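Can't attach files on this board, so I'm pasting raw text. These are the components:
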Amino acid sequence: MPHLEIKNLVKKYGDFTAVKDVSFAVEQGEFVVMVGPSGCGKSTLLRSIAGLEEISSGEICINGRDISRDEPSDRGVAMVFQNYALYPHMTVRQNMGFALKIAGAPKREVNEAVERAAAILRIQEQLDKRPKALSGGQKQRVAIGRAITRSPDVFLFDEPLSNLDAALRSQMRIELGRLHTELGATMVYVTHDQTEAMTMASRIVVLHDGIIEQIGTPLDLYNEPHNRFVAGFLGSPRMNFIEARAEQSREGMVSVSAPGLDGSLRIKLKAGADAPAPGEKVTVGVRPEAFGEHDAGGWTIKGSIAVIESLGRETLVYLDGGQVRATDSESHEGYFAVHRTRQITARHGDGLTVTVDPNAVFLFGPDDETIAFPQSHHSIIHNQV
Amino acid sequence: MGSRFRFVNVVLYGAVSLWSLFVLLPLVWMVIASSKTRREIFLDPLGLPAQFRLDAFERAWSVGMGTFLFNSAIITFFSVIVIVVVSGMAAYVLARSDNKWMQLVYLMIVAGFAVPVQAVLVPLFQMVSEAGMLNSRAAIVLPYAAYGVPFTTILFYAFFLDFPRELEEAARLDGCGRLQIFFRIILPLSGPAIASAAIFQAVFIWNEFVLALLMLTKPALKTLPVGILQLTGEFTADWPAIMAGLSIAVLPILLIFILAQKYFVRSLAGLGK
Amino acid sequence: MMTDAAKTSLTGDRGRSGAPRSAKSANAISTSVLLGPALLLCGVFIVVPAILAIFGSFFDFGITSQNWEFVGLGNYGRAASDPVFWIALRNNLIIVVGSIILQVGVGTILAAILDRGLPSGSTIFRTIIFAPMVVSSVAIAIIWLVILDPNVGALNAVIKQIGLTPPALGWLGDPNIAIWMILIIAMWQFTGFMMVLILAGLQGIPKELYEAASLDGARGLKAFWYITLPSIRNILIVAVLITTIGGFKVFDLIYATTQGGPANATQVLGTYIYQQAFNLGNMGYADAISVVLLLIAVALGWLQLQISRRA
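---
Top answer:
Structure tokens for the assembled complex are below.
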């Protein structure tokens, strides 16, 4: 029996349907991250699990019990809010113990639970302070501590790190990972930040327009996205997309060509995929790290460097391909994002040539479903080193 | 530039000083006149008294200024408490509901703010008198509260709209019902709004005249504004006693105002929002 | 990690035993508990009297009399042909227009000076000028009554000292002067309030706006005209509306000084309603005038709501 199960959940606001018939299950001890662009329904879904939104139809089960009509406090969930939501008029101790106090637990028990949670988060020193006296990171620890004190069946996180600065955010990511292992608890985490999703999740749920696009481990989603949306959403900088046309296909291979690029790519379709008819619109997807430097029997893009970002151990180049442009690109200018795991000394305007290896690209069909994956992810990585 | 700057400053200081003087002189004159003799005030209205005396204060006090003060104080106190609690609760429900009927209720309450007491004086008096509520301190608290509720509800409504929702959601997850959320989370964090509302209503009720004039006619129940008007009848030509009575009525509230002027100003300026 | 006791108390027995808990009815109960008192108070003391005033305006009746005689629109007809009603309405309008010019006008100037014109001391000035606002109108009326008194008043003493002749009938006794004196007393009382209201608006103008303007060459009066006034436009409108509403509601000040006299020269709607109802016993007629006042007040209140919503 799954620990948390969502069945056919629908949430409507008037005529607008925020969550459209969503179902998935979370096992005991999993760290599930729900991710998607703003307005995709991820927060609504989380708040429905918490009981802060009344669902229109469907079921939410924890340990097999349908809790979808229960009061939030009767569901055995605890939530960590984006703005911490600490009660300003209570001390840290009172904040953390409030739920148990309302539930009528004896003082001694409340205190023990608070102390235990404080020890896990190393905030014993802060217990008698008011939230106002704490830094952002400390507030977030207290908010997490408040959840731990309640000993919930499921922890819910609503973009808990988005108010922290970059350094603190990566520190808290590690901390949350540690907590998850230490508590062995089931956690459902909402974020719009794909880095958080990739780094922390045992499984990721990608939501878009109120439906689930794909569920899987971070690397599954990165390596084998079901469609162009998932492919574009995970990975930073995002995947480069090149609009192309299918030509003839034979024996599980399809040739595609794109305006402005000489020759055609012969790409191996994934098993069971329908080959696009000749002339149909397809999209070629190239991860920034998948651009080669030597001709591998595919396309060659000759261009000039529009922007170069040197990060020390790695370099990001935004390549202006002249007439050849990436669609739906990170830079909105149609530049290609190229990632290199070494230092490059070049300047704006310098020429750069990259190659597209037909074995290293994704291919998305006319309906944006993925119809071809790169042949070997490892080989791509080795090629680049 | 330097000398011009100083000249402009002198003009601006002059302007506000002149107005301040215009405001202060009547009050100063009131205090001075109250320590004069009847003869002095008649012969030399502007001069200082030959000798500082308090007998006018004694005469004024003997009419019952103490009673008036007491009546005003308790009526104001209870009215303000009723207003704050009742408006706070109502504003909370209204601010947290997107139900159409509730919005209509809010609009009705806002409309109530526009109704002046003077325009309903006749029926209000009839109702109160039919209900046998004339000459009752407890009874006048109710209409006072009623006329304070609309504005205070509007004030709290705006405050609650800005109140962080996540705190309430956290409280729901922590097991609080709606009443518990209101009394354990919202109220303790509404200090500034409550202070603003309370000061505003206190000033208004402390000075309210027409309802008190109609509804509290027994001397032992009269409030300060009605009581001091009675002074002019009581002491036909005893100007020092009248001025002493006014001083007793005016100086305490002025003192409180000066001590807490920041809060008074903030509270009353809120009307502009 | 979970203490069993805590877990039970949190997940609760309600859910587990499957007993449906009626969240909706609990909500309805708490709604009525929270909203009920306000609705009851406003309903009984505002809505019902307002309806009764409209109802009563179609009848003739006295304070204690039980006979209500239906007169239809008779009371309104009576008002239309009653010169005192028109004098009262005119006086309300004089007070409204005069107060807007004096209180909002002077208040704006004082606020602008306090906001940016003085290097120091603005809090003291603000406190003094605002002070009359916390004093009861009755007390203010009596203080001025004495100041303006022909025999012992300070004003006459000053006028005589300068060598001029004060009005023979007294400042408040002369029908041609009295209403203007009322206007001055009202100005003394409320200008500070307007000043503080407008000052709050002025202090909301970001400093950068003035800095940018001064780089563009607008300083002093020019900055006031091009930056300050447009920025507080909405506050000024609200101030005008508050003053207008106050001008129609005026009662205490006149009741405690002239009671509408001499010869109805300072009569306003508020005092006239009171006089007709409680001195002359024409309750129905008083109700009709009340309805006129009510309509004016509600219309102005609605306007104020619209404007503050836009702000």
